[in-house]
Design brief:
The protein is an alpha+beta fold. 31% of the residues lie in helices and 23% in strands. Bound molecules: iron/sulfur cluster (SF4) (2 copies). This is 4Fe-4S dicluster domain-containing protein.
């Protein structure tokens, strides 16, 4: 374990940024967002960022390849970003777990080499949650906000910032920062106890996921409750864009007049044209689209991934949905004991 005075955090950030690109939550208006560090920037005190840390591995818009068309000849031009090593500092436990979920999607067979490239360049430093909020329910998914994963785990513990390396990459980074001192174990134990005292009182800590699995797939799919749950959904897609585990995207070509740029951008299963095909769409109403989002996270994903849910309980969709619909309401309505 290493430690440094919290008051020396600016020097620590400078030292890390001198080695590699550094991204951290920085306050931008009313919300914090992961931002590339520039001298003088301060770590936001916000519990979580408006958009999640997945942006660093799966950006909202990304160029894939360019084409030049001359007559009948097509030249393929590799335009991918070769990438650089970077440090992702201040990732919360829920967002860090979302990387495991995204890895299952993008690093499965066949691998998404764009995503893999960014993942391989990153050193992730998580930050334990000092004050989890009432919208947080990560513990329901077995996540401990007092002991997040990552290459390095950090805790703000009284006057100390304590750091523990969890991987070789993390050890190498901490060893390269001479301003760190040894110690901090006792401060971390106290900080973890304080965090657990809060999580034990959170209103959503007992959310019951019983029955959300592949064995109950048709029962959940055919529930009459979807009609009432989806009735007011605007199909705005906000819930999908703030979600750290949502991974739908579209691929499009843009003709610049000189060449074709093929790019991908986030899409949403909440949108009416997401499943549009030559014959039309197979999810013609918002009921089917709404059901898909929650069936995927709560039933299909765990059925195909050893019981791992496609939600990490970050609470962003609880805060952002304009009609106050969210995954918690779905779980409570369709869950054990409900029809
Ligand atoms: S579904 Fe909601 S609570 Fe779950 S990970 Fe996505 S945004 Fe967070
Ligand atoms: S559930 Fe809410 S945030 Fe998601 S698409 Fe519907 S209205 Fe928008």
């Amino acid at each position: 374990m290493k430690k440094i005075a919290v008051s020396a955090l600016p020097q620590l950030l400078e030292a890390m940024a001198a080695q590699q690109a550094l991204y951290l939550p920085v306050q931008q208006g009313r919300s914090a967002q992961f931002t590339r560090y520039e001298s003088g920037m301060e770590l936001s005190e916000a519990l979580n960022t408006g958009r999640s840390a997945k942006d660093l591995f799966f950006p909202q818009v990304e160029n894939l390849v360019d084409f030049k068309v001359t007559g009948k000849a097509i030249e393929v031009i590799e335009s991918r970003d070769v990438g650089e090593d970077f440090i992702l500092f201040g990732v919360r436990a829920c967002d860090c777990r979302s990387f495991d979920i995204l890895d299952r999607v993008f690093l499965g067979d066949p691998k998404d080499t764009y995503y893999e490239n960014r993942r391989s360049h990153a050193t992730v430093i998580t930050l334990a949650c000092g004050a989890p909020e009432e919208t947080c329910f990560c513990t329901v998914f077995g996540i401990d906000p007092a002991d997040p994963a990552g290459d390095v785990t950090a805790w703000k513990a009284g006057q100390w910032l304590c750091l523990r390396a969890n991987t070789k990459k993390g050890e190498k980074l901490l060893a390269s920062l001479p301003m760190l001192q040894n110690g901090g174990e006792d401060a971390v134990v106290a900080a973890q106890a304080a965090i657990h005292a809060i999580t034990e009182k959170l209103p959503l800590k007992d959310l019951n996921l019983t029955g959300f699995d592949g064995d109950h797939l048709m029962e959940k799919f055919n529930s009459p409750q979807w009609a009432q749950l989806s009735e007011s959904c605007l199909g705005c897609g906000s819930c999908t864009f703030v979600c750290p585990t949502c991974q739908c995207y579209d691929i499009k070509d843009f003709n610049t007049g000189h060449e074709i740029k093929r790019f991908r951008c986030w899409d949403s299963c909440m949108y009416s044209d997401f499943t549009m095909m030559a014959h039309g769409t197979n999810r013609p109403t918002q009921l089917e689209r709404f059901r898909q989002r929650f069936m995927h996270k709560l039933v299909y994903f765990p059925a195909n991934n050893e019981g791992i849910y496609g939600c990490v309980g970050c609470g962003r969709c609880l805060q952002k949905c304009p009609i106050s619909m969210n995954i918690v309401k779905v779980i409570k309505t369709l869950g054990e004991g409900a029809q």
